[in-house]
Request: fold
Amino acid sequence: MAGFFAELGIPVYIADVEAKKLTERSKVIRRKLTALLGPKTYTEAGLNRPFVAKAIFNDANLLAEVNAIIHPKVGHHFNRWVKKQQAPYCIKEAAILFENGGYKNCDATIVVTAPLTLRMERLLKRDGTTKAAIEDRMAYQWPDEKKLKLADYHIENTDLKLTKTLVKELHKRLLRS
Reply:
């Protein structure tokens, strides 16, 4: 969905992508993650994602510690990125924007929903992962109903043509506000 905003010329910051980049290039993150999770955290190829995912998505405390290492760096990176933008507004796409309190730093929020079966289907296709791995991640995310109570806007993303139309309509609203 963020891609539809990008097509309209709106800068989009995808927090998960930037977090992955930061875990690869930040020596501070590398050092802290290795100290927390052990020497298998990184390989010669970079972050050992399967090892890290297995460790953190089975231990809420460990997940919180990893998030405390990575999220502040992503937040700082995002703030620097925002200052460089010249558009009327920008989009920050983040899977856990509400859960980590990041929504408090946004002028407005959009919650994008889809039925669980459709989300699962899309994630299996996109990420090439397992249903169990997706369920492990989703277990740490708030239910849509909770996020919707805090959101300024809601888009249901079930049909891509309709979603694109809804994004265009929301874009016009955001330009007016």
About this structure: The mean pLDDT is 93. The longest strand covers residues 110-113. Residues 34 and 41 are 6 Å apart (CA to CA).
